[in-house]
Amino acid sequence: MILPVIMAGGSGTRLWPLSRGNYPKQFLKLNGEHTMLQDTLTRLTGLAHSPAMLICNEEHRFIAAEQVRQLGAEHGGIFLEPVGRNTAPAIALAAFKAIENEQDPLLLVLAADHVIEDSAAFQASVNKAAELANQGKLVTFGIVGNSPETGYGYIKRGDAVEHGYVVNSFVEKPNLDTAKQYIESGDYYWNSGMFLFKASRYLEELKAFRPDIYKACEKAIAVQNSDMDFIRVDKAAFEACPDESIDYAVMEHTKDAVVVPMDAGWSDVGGFAALWEVSSQDENGNAFKGDVKAVDTKNTLIFGEDKLVATVGVEDLVIVNTKDAVLVAHKDKSQEVKAIVNQLKAEERPEVTFHREVYRPWGKYDSVDNGERFQVKRITVKPGAKLSVQMHHHRAEHWIVVSGTAKVQIDDKEQYVTENESVYIPITAVHALENPGKVDLELIEVQSGSYLGEDDIVRFEDRYGRVK
Predict the structure, then answer these.
(1) What number is the average pLDDT over the span 340-356?
(2) Residue 454 CA, distance from chain mean position
(3) What is the pLDDT of residue 467?
(4) Do 197 and 60 share a structural domain?
(5) 348 belongs to a structural domain
(6) Cβ neighbour number for residue 217 with a 10 Å cutoff
(7) Interacting residues of 332 by C-beta distance below 8 A, sequence separation 6+
(8) Which helix (H) or strand (E) holds 443?
(9) Residue 437 belongs to domain spanning
(10) Where are the strands (E) in 30-137, listed by range?
């Protein structure tokens, strides 16, 4: 049986300001009605497999769980990495978990942030690879390239085997001339970062070539703590694990690496130029999302989140408008967006990490306005959800219900607040907010005080495990 292992970490900095630290590209709807994580799950439909295991970090755990729930899909647990240690250790955790009950499934390792347009071709390649993996081979999927891409690593194929080829070598990202030679030769594939192998075989090869990673992960998973959908491992042990990719740790050393070609409309959407390529385009080569009006505009990608975006006489641009940032870049230079992100990080700007709209396990909030000693948020609480029982040292809050009904606790008093009603929470009052209804609760929160940071929250109770 195939056990999908979906890697849902990563920050996607080249797609800023759409993708940010607290809500990266795998959780965004970039190319259709579903998010990239949800698309990764849906393309498994029709493939014989057990419920997928997800791997992400603590910060994104509720986003990942909610997106799986929205899809109505089952999952085999969500592993939470205490810290990022690259793909080799993450896959080792999944492999150790997979063999716990004396089973040895085939691990289908997938990234949560890839576009694959042809699910049938994807599944056909996986089924071919399964035959090789059952023979003890470590399979990687090589994308049949149609252009000399310099943003991908390459795999050089060797002797033919059934359904694929022996891996001759893995090649780093080439320059343009070298990439052209690779594509023209027909002996090279784009390195997709997707794999299929028996859990036991991966661990055997990891132990042989990187015993330090093997031992650290073995020690980390020996101490497990399950919490709702989530599986946590020993933090200290995992922090001590070296940071290494599966390519460097295992695939470049094993004698059992094979590559199975895949021609399925694959893209890792590593930047806005790639996003433009996989997006639906009009007769002028434009890809628009949101409220866009364009005159004499060609080959341009525009994302308009909350306001009208209008262009006249432009070509080959990327224009992204979010609630708190605007990016304008030449499409050929869009990979250099990372330089802007680095500047923002150096200046400790919040826009590098947070969107104006922030998702929480109970719903979301949108920071509508702020100034000296005040902040205004629009808060949405899902049906049946409850914010933590908490207190603030430096701010008071005023809640005005726009729609729905709120169940409000202030110190030892409990009350219901409905549409067009409001309630005041003084500084240091212990309070909680709950939606007891069947529809979303929408309210406006006005904060006032000397300090309005999110770290001025003292939690006493929390159904989402956030009490420290």
Answers:
(1) 94
(2) 23
(3) 72
(4) yes
(5) no
(6) 28
(7) 273, 316
(8) strand 441-449
(9) 357-461
(10) 52-57, 75-81, 106-111, 115-116
